[in-house]
Design brief:
Elements: H1 3-24, H2 30-42, E1 45-46, H3 47-54, H4 58-70, E2 74-78, E3 85-89, H5 91-112, H6 117-131
Antiparallel strand pairs: 1-3, 2-3
Helix pairs in contact: 2-4, 3-4
């Protein structure tokens, strides 16, 4: 195994576990936050758009969206085609979102503080290069 990828996988696990600790105060997990963040950024999305964007299996996204609906974060309604479901943040979700976002930003900043702006940009560039875009 290439040590670079081992380090990426280990670091990702550590970041995910630490982020889950931050999100616990809001009753959320990283996988749920990813969907909330994505839907917030796009204003509204279909389930298909979410799983394609996040590169997550469709049943996983459906289960997570259903759970977020039960928790009051999201609402789902029929699209133009009744088979497509449009997902948006609920009124409650819109009210609670800024506090969670602030906590996540604080967490991310605490990690990134060891890197200069130039190093952060280089790191992002390298990650995108590895992804092929």
């Amino acid at each position: 195994m290439n040590i670079i990828f081992h380090e990426i996988f280990q670091t990702t696990r550590q970041f995910t576990n630490n982020l889950n600790t931050v999100l616990k105060d809001y009753g959320l997990y990283n996988s749920q936050w990813s969907i909330l963040f994505t839907v917030h950024q796009h204003k509204e999305m279909t389930l298909t758009e979410i799983w394609k964007y996040l590169n997550v299996e469709a049943p996983t996204v459906t289960r997570t969206v259903t759970r977020l609906e039960q928790l009051g974060w999201l609402v789902r309604h029929d699209g133009e085609d009744r088979r497509s479901k449009i997902v948006t943040l609920s009124e409650e979700g819109l009210k609670k979102y800024p506090a969670v976002e602030a906590a996540v930003i604080q967490f991310e900043n605490s990690i990134a503080k060891g890197l200069t702006i130039e190093e952060q940009q280089m790191f992002l560039s390298l990650l995108r290069k590895l992804k092929g875009r």
